[in-house]
Amino acid sequence: MPRYQRILLKLSGEILAGPAGSGVDEDMLHRLAGEIADVHKSGVQIGVVLGGGNIFRGLAAASRGMDRVAADYMGMLATVINSLALQHALEKRGLFTRVLSAIDMQKVAEPFIRRRAVRHLEKGRVVLFAAGTGNPYFTTDTAAALRAIEVGADVVLKGTRVDGVYDKDPERHDDAARYAAITYLDVLNQGLKVMDSTAVSLCMDNKLPIVVFDVGRPGNLARVVEGEPVGTLVGDQAHG
Question: What range does the domain containing 145 cover?
């Protein structure tokens, strides 16, 4: 019996890029689709929020002088491209999917309506939440937290390239220690790069747990959903 019945999976655009570092890597796309399909078979309801950093990073463009609002909207459109790509990969595996966009674009996606999203999940469709929150200045991490709360998800699963939350950057420090569990407040106070502070605060206020795990390791998504101690659990209390 899966530990979580309804999940919100947050994937960065960089994950989709694979080894190339940009664009959409077909092998990675189909591997992720396979992982999602395996979890779906167990009866878990799945929502997904994808970042767009493999195509366009709004914040980076703004730092180079581009208008921040325009740059953020470009980033939102990049998430729609990624969502359509993942939808294609999932449907090739026989899963029914829906892309719900926070920005109206009826030719390619349904508009985000909370009740419609919940109904899709109840019917066993994988729901891809695209275009962030539809507002500039908010990240896709915040969009993931918001959508998870709106549809009543049990957990936010943050799939990354590292196997959890560390006290310092594990790619730069050999003595970095991984937390098995950590509180929301400790994440915020220590400035740990789990999700941005708005997303963490939203989860804290609504008692929505976050699990940060290495989505690049085959089978990890299923292990997390089954309740195995994979990655780092962010919640009200730390248990070691």
Answer: 6-235
